[in-house]
Amino acid sequence: MIFHSIGNQSKKMTFWNKVTLALWIIIGFSLLSFFTFTFFIIAFVVGIIIFILRLFLKTRPPFKNTQQTNTNPFANQRNRSNNPKDSDIIDI
């Protein structure tokens, strides 16, 4: 495609124009791959750090929102009845 003339022009692309076009394409792809690889490495390192922190910090207490349990009217309701004869009935 680069050997064809553009439109009705009789001028062909010079060799120097072809070389610079190829160089700019190579430079563009190399910059794109460099930044893509850099972002991948940063995300990979952050993922490893988060994994290691979760692995070693398992002893922290679970999060409990006391304000929500005080205002929630459904916090103390149970789904099971106290009657042992009702244990065979499946409620859907």
Explain what the structure shows.
By secondary structure, this protein is mainly α. The protein has a domain at 13-61. The chain is 52% helix and 0% strand. It has 2 helices and no strands. It has helices at residues 15-56, 66-71. The N and C termini lie far apart (68 Å). 0% of the residues are buried. The mean pLDDT is 77.
Strand content: under 5%
Structural class: mainly alpha
Query: What's the rounded overall pLDDT mean?
Result: 77
Q: Helix-strand pattern, N to C?
A: HH
Helix count equals: 2
- Strand element count: 0
Helix content: 40-55%
Radius of gyration over C-alpha positions, nearest whole angstrom: 34 Å
Low-confidence stretches: none
Intertermini distance: 68 Å
Instruction: Give the CA-based shape.
Output: elongated
Main β sheet profile:
none
Entry keywords:
92 residues, 52% helix, mainly alpha, single chain
